[in-house]
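Hi there. Long-time user, first ticket. I'm pasting a complex I've been working with (about 615 residues overall). I'd like to know whether the download I got is complete or cut off, because the file seemed smaller than I expected. Thanks.
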Amino acid sequence: MKYLAMVAAVLLVLSYGCASKPVGDASTLSAADEARLAQEEAQRKKDRDARLVEEDLAKSRQEKEKQERQLQEKMKAAKWSDVNFDYDSYAVRSEDVPRLNELGEWLKANKDIRITVEGHCDERGTIEYNLALGQKRAEAVKGHLVKLGIDGKRIRVISYGKEMPLDSGHTEEAWARNRRAHLAVDKKG
Amino acid sequence: MTKLRCIVVLLFLIVGVGMAEAKVYLDVYGKAHKKVTIGIPHFKSDKATRARTDMTELLNNDLDMSGFFVVAPSSLFDRELLDEGIEKAETKFPNWRSIGIELVCKARVVETGGEVALEAYLYDTLDGSVLLAKRYRTKPNEWRKIVHRLADDILLAVTGEKGIMDSRIIFVGGTTRNKDVYTASVDGTGVRRITSFRNITVSPSVSPDGKYLAYTSFKEGKPNLFITNLETGADVHVERQDGMKIGTAWMGKSTLAYSHTSGRTSTIYAYDVVKGQKKALLTKEGILTSPSFSPDGTKLAFVSDMYGSPQVFVQDMASGHVKRLTYSGNYNTSPSFSPKGDLIAFVSKIGGAFEICTMNVDGSNQRVLTSGGVNDSPHFSPCGRYIMYSSKRGNRYNLYVMLYNGENKRLLKFTNGNEEQPKFAP
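Hi, the file is complete. Here it is re-exported in full:
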């Protein structure tokens, strides 16, 4: 893509150079020729503009990719792994506090980033209570981050109850994995 | 339901008078009851009708499912009994009684001019009294409907209240992350999907007048609560504020109760669809969910974790007084009032299982009705004698119906997917 653009640019410059020669001798030209030349000039201008737009788009695409790369780098530095909970509990466990503190520091350093916290439950229990419980789990994680000084407006919480298990198994391990608050960058904005 | 052209004709005035005084054969609210043995000889009909419809078999199934009858196997009836006519004068009651049959239901099916007619009698073999004499007519392809009507009428004649076989229900069907609201007849026919969001859609309920459907759906990316006019298909109200809006229960004709959990607190709201007004009924820290009103609207049952674990409470609407109903175990949820107002069904974690239970409205007399597995969403029939619920067997949720005392559990079959959160539809 980049090469194509370059080749096109070189060709255009060359053709411009060639075409400009007769223009220097404009006094000898008939009115019809002048009109034709003006038309050609207009066409060349149009081509030049098109090339400029093309370059701009490429540039902005590069910029976007760069930003995405930087975000990925930043995200690597943050602690994104799920926060897990005890059965029927929405209290953040003490072992998860240092991790959440680190995430809080990272959010302070990256003020442009918003996050979502999804609350989930294991399959044991009733649909409605689990939907409310998932909300409380997500709110508990949000509450912890807000206490660290993060603006609550940057954190969107949503509960999925037991509707979206991470592990479809029916073992203690699967249930423990499914009782979670899942953290992610809020791409919606 | 009203669409169906089903004409019921009372055959004899004398019989009508007799029926009005029909004695109640079973005390349905007794602790246990003895089932009545009923004999149903094959309905009289021509060969073509018999080949196309199996009305006798369907009535057998319906009465078995009702939980109030022992349906005698047809192998018990000898040639002489089977050759009898359907009229009282043609029936030799001592013969039926001698093989242990207490009630006998006889019927004749006639198809004429694009219509099927069922003429049915129910006799008490002890004294030959006529408990029911009715003719039902409908379109030939709706023959199941008139059998269900007959089953419900037999229940009315014998127990004093209609059965549930002619009812429609709603439930949530589908697969993980792809749940929609369905409606169907209790017998498993007429399955229809009434939402098609292909997202997570839960906790549906239909207003008592059948006009509105309320549910919570993630179709807009977060859990919002919708009230849809079923006649026009238009949303009449949507709750979009942050947080979880869940658990829909109707009070009166057009007031919907639901819970909202956001931030530190939860609130149970009542939304009047006609007036477009919202009122907070109760706010507490932590979780409040699954509101359910007593039939007279004076009591509100709900779940709260105000003492650390989910328990069932009831609030007196006039005084605002809140009473805790469950103390046993650390997980009691999903309360649901009986339309009779005498019982509350709920889910209790017992051992590793989640069981359907009932209790009196003051919390006394708690009974465990299921045994093992993950059972959820108990809901009473309009007559208060049956409880429908979902139960997980293996990897699948299915719907079941049982008597209010836990007897006579029957699997209901509708779709090939999961089926959850059933409710009887008006």
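A couple of notes from our side: The first strand of chain A starts at residue 83 and ends at 84. Residues 31-77 of chain A form the longest helix (47 residues).
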